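We modelled the chain as a single entity of 351 amino acids. Its sequence is:
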Amino acid sequence: MMRLFRSLGLVMAAACAVTPAFADTVGGVVAPADAGASGFPAFLQLLAARARGEGVREQTIRDVISGMTFDPDVVRHDRSQPGGPPSSIPRFEPYRRTHVDAGRIDRGRAMLASVGPLATTVETRYGVPASVVLAIWGHETNYGRFTGTYDLPRSIASLAYEGRRRELFSAEFVALLKMIDRGVPRSRLLGSWAGAFGNPQFLPSVYLRVAQDADGDGIADIWTSRPDTLASIANYFRDAGWRRGEPWGFSVTVPAGYVHGSLATALSSPRCPQVFMRHSRWRTMAEWRALGFAPARGTWPDDRIQATLFEPDGPGHPAYLLTGNYRVILDYNCSNFYALSVGLLADEISR
């Protein structure tokens, strides 16, 4: 299932972005409260045995788990996340105003200018526009301004012990130990309560899979290195199926005679069904043009590109045609609000 939907969409983008405004994201079932943390030391030994079996050095295991205690705070955060289908879908426009704001746009443009030729290098190697990469960075940590202060090994072990997503976080704990074995300093392992870290807010397994050493210093530094950060995000997108040269989508004018809902999808996606059910059926750009749709600005992309129609706030409000690359943004965080605002921020950064 796309690597457990890329570790549950980076565990909902590390839950840094999961707020009531994300009511169309994947929900979870809250587990009963654990009776206590008395079994945590024994559980750590189970994690240690698993890590040992996967080749993690004994010294690394001892250094990390020695003296570690359960963190009830991360479990409270986890259980406070909204779950299940929303009773009503909030409007996108208020969310857009706070996430595609002047500050993020200005900082994104300044960052694009400051990285200079690096932007072209990343685009050429990975096929992902630098503006999209920067938009992810801007959304996740406001270009590195806040990357989290929780001790990652303790957070991830506590989430594994709590049990709601035990296998996921047990695997992430072992992956974190492997990072240390690869030379990542223990002092850098701070992040969100949900176990994500660095400028892109990767989970440990994602770091091991896609993080890049673009500056050639021997370590994939997604904490302080701009080249490594940009290349790592771009590599994530390439790995998730980004199509070179294809837009993520664009705003369109809806023809007066269009019958809203006439192209509603009859399919139910096994992944993020509440997100995808709001998109229309797929049609080619040529078919959308024949129906009377038109880009709100710019020109049509290739006629053969397929897209779905999405009207986040309903008829009479901005509408968008979304390509397969929009689905790649959803792979990072399966929320229409998140993905749409990333695309719009990218557009503003590149203007």
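As a brief sanity check on the tokenised model: DSSP finds 16 helices and seven strands in the chain. The first helix runs from residue 2 to 14.
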